[in-house]
From TrEMBL:
NCBIfam families reported for this sequence: LIC
Classification of source organism: Eukaryota, Metazoa, Chordata, Craniata, Vertebrata
InterPro entries linked to this entry: 5HT3_rcpt (IPR008132), 5HT3_rcpt_B (IPR008134), LGIC_TM_5-HT3 (IPR049944), Neur_chan_lig-bd (IPR006202), Neur_chan_lig-bd_sf (IPR036734), Neur_channel (IPR006201), Neuro-gated_channel_TM_sf (IPR036719), Neuro_actylchol_rec (IPR038050)
Name of the gene: LOC101388486
Transmembrane segments: 245-264, 276-293, 305-327, 420-443
Function field: Forms serotonin (5-hydroxytryptamine/5-HT3)-activated cation-selective channel complexes, which when activated cause fast, depolarizing responses in neurons.
Name under which the protein is recorded: 5-hydroxytryptamine receptor 3B
Keywords of the record: Cell membrane, Disulfide bond, Glycoprotein, Ion channel, Ion transport, Ligand-gated ion channel, Membrane, Postsynaptic cell membrane, Receptor, Signal, Synapse, Transmembrane, Transmembrane helix, Transport
Amino acid sequence: MCPRTLASAMSPLWPFILLAASAILAIDIPHPRNSAVYHLTKKLLQKYHKEVRPVHDWTQATTVYLDVLVRAVLDVDAQNQKLKTSVWYREVWDDEFLSWNSSMFDEIREISLPLSAIWAPDIIINEFVDIERSPDLPYVYVNSSGTIKNAKPIQVVSACSLETYAFPFDIQNCSLTFNSILHTVEDVDLAFLRSREDIKHDKKAFLNDSEWELLSVPSTYNILQSSVGDFAQIQFNVVIRRRPLVYVVSLLIPSIFLMLVDLGSFYLPPTCRARIVFKTSVLVGYTIFRVNMSDEMPRSTVSTPLIGVFFTVCMAFLVLSLSKSILLVKFLHNEQRTGQERPLLCLRGDTDADGPRTDPRAQLAAMTESPIGQEHQAQPGTLKEVWTQLRSISDYFRTWDQEDQQEVGWLALLERFDRLLFQGYLVVLGLYTVTLCSLWALWSGL
């Protein structure tokens, strides 16, 4: 049979051959399941209007369920009163326009939809003060009953009243308040996705390797009443406390040692120049330590750390004691008696070393034992001159006694003041120690 005769004989069979081949290909290639997802998504969003709140009865409020998981405390800015936290935020609500029968779409019970294509509640954080970079998750999950789940990690920079008075044993309580910015409670109501006790004690997601430790996340629900209406709001309080060990080692213990050294300087004699040199060295140490401490302590315009207050008081005691020692040198040291300087000798030693101090009694004895004195005693006509010399010696005695009395009076007054400073220093150091121990006990009890 020729080829032309064969082709003409099989031409009626070509449609059947093509149909059989397509059937075989349809059997070999699996039917894609995403076609059902495509048709379901197209059906749900075809006539969907995201501008309308998704309820059939407009008098019925849409309840939004909220949940917060604190993951980390990123920064605590006491100077600007800001708290930066990383949280995992979840919100769930029902959309009555996005429900379907799963048996009609290959038993698909949950799909993802773009958040920009559906209605979403306008929930904001009242304490929000700054924009931080957070991963943008543009999709939400929707199940067949119309329940929408929107979960996303966010970095929140919120305003918070930070108290640094008890530093480094401070405990901070910062709130994150969620509410709708436009919808009143008649339109959008809020509720807890989990029980409040579970939210309060949930720490499994917190990264516990930073300076701050998460204590609890208590929450409350209330109605905010305003002139434009009543708004539902949920407040989550993030309660954190600082880990103080590094500050105890680097700040508290060195400050106590420095105060003890300054306290020991009171055992030096008040009339000794070495005390001025020693206290000046301690004052330099106080200044350097204060500069280093200011870099590590939180700066706040609202409150001052208690350790800074005590440190300033101790510096004031040191300056008073140093000023007292300087005044003592001014009143008791006679700089005109010598041109030499002996900075490490006490005042009495300096005055004795400056030159021999003549005793009037010795002068009188020498005068009476000298030939001139004997000659004056032997000659009655010279009694007037002897009387004049005796009067000069008496005046010298009186002047010497007055100087001694003035010196003893100043010494007694300054020693009394020095003792008062020492007792005040002991009281301040005791209060400092007791206060720090109390704060540490309160910190440990939480």
